[in-house]
Specification:
The chain is mainly alpha-helical and 212 residues long. The protein is built from eleven helices and no strands. Helix 1 runs antiparallel to helix 4 and helix 4 (53-72) crosses helix 7.
């Protein structure tokens, strides 16, 4: 039975995910909407590119925490009286709500980021070992290529294989479905980046920071 408590938890997770960290920090402290500069993406990478590390690192940390916290609050909303969902399913539902909030934030006209940092927070909460491994994959690809987008895509595609085949989470169907969904969602939302990568038009990340 879907209850008021369940609906409230989903709304709260969405609102947490919707917090537009990069947009608010850019507007409040720099007078800049990062969605109008650089790659025009409301994420940590573009924030670093446009505003520097002093703005970008807090954005990255907070966006990761959004995903983790959205999963964490499930324990406060679930109890034995709920016939649907069970606790794990509720965590996954709230995780999805948080990512949708980040990509389509209600506070700033439903124009957000790609959700990578928020997905990392969700991974830390639900798949801690797999998340650590794919972070390692991300770092390796980034070191060799310099492309954040390519690193994110390869890490996300590798994620379900790491979780299901390497770590053996094949007994938990909902975790399998979510892992596969991540492997499909991230390349999909990076489809413009993929096109630029193919055409050799994608910008590499630079560690030079003119704002420090």
């Amino acid at each position: 039975m879907i209850t008021f408590k369940l609906i409230l938890s989903i709304i709260l997770a969405y609102l947490i995910g919707s917090i537009p960290t990069s947009v608010w920090i850019g507007r409040m402290f720099y007078g800049v909407d990062v969605r109008t500069k650089g790659s025009k993406n409301a994420g940590a990478t573009n924030t670093i590119r446009v505003l520097g590390y002093k703005a970008g690192i807090p954005v990255l940390i907070f966006d990761v925490l959004k995903g983790w916290f959205a999963v964490y609050i499930a324990t406060y909303f679930w109890d034995g009286s709920l016939t649907f969902p069970d606790l794990l399913d509720l965590k996954i539902i709230l995780a999805i709500a948080a990512v949708l909030g980040h990509v389509f934030p209600v506070y700033v006209g439903f124009k957000g980021g790609k959700g990578i940092a928020t997905l990392l927070g969700i991974g830390i909460a639900l798949y801690p070992v797999a998340a650590l491994i794919v972070v390692g994959i991300f770092i390796l690809v980034f070191v060799f290529t310099g492309y954040v987008s390519l690193s994110s895509i390869i890490a996300s595609v590798a994620f379900p294989f790491v979780d299901i085949l390497l770590l053996g989470h094949d007994k938990y169907i909902t975790l399998i479905i979510l892992a596969i969904a991540v492997g499909v969602f991230v390349p999909f939302i990076h489809r413009k980046n993929i096109k630029r990568l193919i055409n050799k038009e994608e910008s590499k990340f630079s560690f030079k920071n003119k704002n420090t």
